[in-house]
């Protein structure tokens, strides 16, 4: 790591920040401060813009650096992640995007509350949405801290601390000042940068191997030290039955969780019609799918060009595989090309983190203001405008994320993303699908299905090897481990669905047929949609 | 459903953002929580005094809506079952059936690689098929229904 890399990477990243801050001030110049504007950007984005923004919201640094790194270290097993992340979008496209656009206004809770008694349902859905967002945010913040340490070589505590604080402060500024419009543009810019960077590296890798994918795989297998096993599954998840079940559990959470992520759901409200929401998702699937295909090439490319051992030396989790590959493709350390490519990758990774945390912060502030505050406010308390509350909530969530990010700085928080997906799949997806498709669903069923997914998911992780009972846990000294799997999805997702069914069966009130009719007609036709 | 108004829905451009009739807020319907009458409301030419709930029930029971819903479900249910089971089979095979997945197909490409890329391919194909199906078989009918329903509910004071 030389001073050149750092200076250039910082310069590029500052350019990105300056550009996005300029966008923020530009889009907020003639604000009227309506909720429509703050949460949904006035609902005036085109499908293509929104598709890019969805892709920008979804493709985190973990996808860009993490999946390629896993492939560089463990070969085929890294690919399993990207397949889960992509197939999940079919659930969103078929069952969620259009119907949510037609039925809701700003959040997931809107869709459910349309059929049920508002207060308990809003509190439940708001709580689970905020939980998912905070888990995801903390993972991103800690990731930002370790990324700066990795890329800029300054593993000093101060650099990491200031990175976390800086990222947190920036996201609060974007969200509070610019609302959805600024956040969306940041995500669009980031998606374009990320795609451009990935395409460049992929082309360079393929040129290096003369376009021969077969040769690339063979070289990767050879340099990995595992031979042909590198190209088949099993190096990472092929251990005992616990490890295998664990991965199946994670795969379920990945494929079902995306449709319950609050920051993805809120993106469907930024377009005028359900048809536009569908076309956004088609755009997003095209972008995300091609992105993951390219990360596969980059992962095997890193194994073939850099070598698995060298990647492992640089970072045990493999996060530096792509930056090292960029350095090599540009002409090696010390060369101008290598320096530039490395700096570009580093800057894109930071831009990625910034865009993702901004999206999550906005979605969770919407949940706090629109769902929780509106339901929990005392009858005769002073009424603040919802957008003002949302702005304050964004700052509060930013503060919480910074604090947790600093506290968890030295812990291995890789499990948090999996947990966020598991909670989204266990608590948010059942209630959403039941509300949209089940005639007899009731308020009690809705509340039970949210808590019946949320509580088991969190509880099982607390009792899992992630937290205690093994050398790699958060608290290796104690042992209250009761549940063998690190990913709770396999148990908590069915639990969420069952709890919703049980709550409905044991409901004291009959299902409201007229409300169901209204939800069904609205969801499929868009009548009366806002 | 009959048209309440001389305006032809077909004259409306299909990508019209429909910003005209903003819906009222949710949960402000009259008759909160009262079970709706089970008999279908008199079709067409609704008498003033019909509540929004009656209108939605009436639309839900109309043949046109049943047709749209049927088309949607006939595509989505089998397609969802198909891709979900295909994904589960893939993940289970990747974690349990090593010999099968490691079997070479051509050069360095093995069954696992073909299956993984197959997942990408099926996702793209299903996306295209769904978008096409919705565009050709559902959009127009849904837009007509939307227009009719909004016409019916327009006069109602909420």
Automatic annotation (TrEMBL), chain A:
Residues 512-521 have a biased composition (Basic and acidic residues). GO terms for molecular function: acetate transmembrane transporter activity; symporter activity. Keywords: Cell membrane, Membrane, Symport, Transmembrane, Transmembrane helix, Transport. PROSITE patterns: NA_SOLUT_SYMP_3 (PS50283). The keyword Transmembrane applies. InterPro entries: Na/Glc_symporter_sf, Na/solute_symporter, Sodium:Solute_Symporter. It comes from the Bacteria. CDD domains: SLC5sbd_u4. It holds the Pfam family SSF. The chain crosses the membrane at residues 6-27, 52-74, 80-100, 121-139, 159-177, 189-209, 247-269, 281-306, 340-363, 384-407, 413-434, 446-467. Residues 509-530 are annotated as: Disordered. It is a multi-pass membrane protein. One of its GO terms (biological process) is plasma membrane acetate transport. GO terms for cellular component: plasma membrane. It is found in: Cell membrane. PANTHER family: CATION_ACETATE SYMPORTER ACTP, SODIUM/PROLINE SYMPORTER-RELATED. Belongs to the sodium:solute symporter (SSF) (TC 2.A.21) family. This is Cation acetate symporter.
UniProtKB/TrEMBL annotation, chain B:
It comes from the Bacteria. The keyword Cell inner membrane does not apply. Keywords: Membrane, Transmembrane, Transmembrane helix. InterPro entries: DUF485 (IPR007436). The chain crosses the membrane at residues 75-93, 105-131. This is DUF485 domain-containing protein.
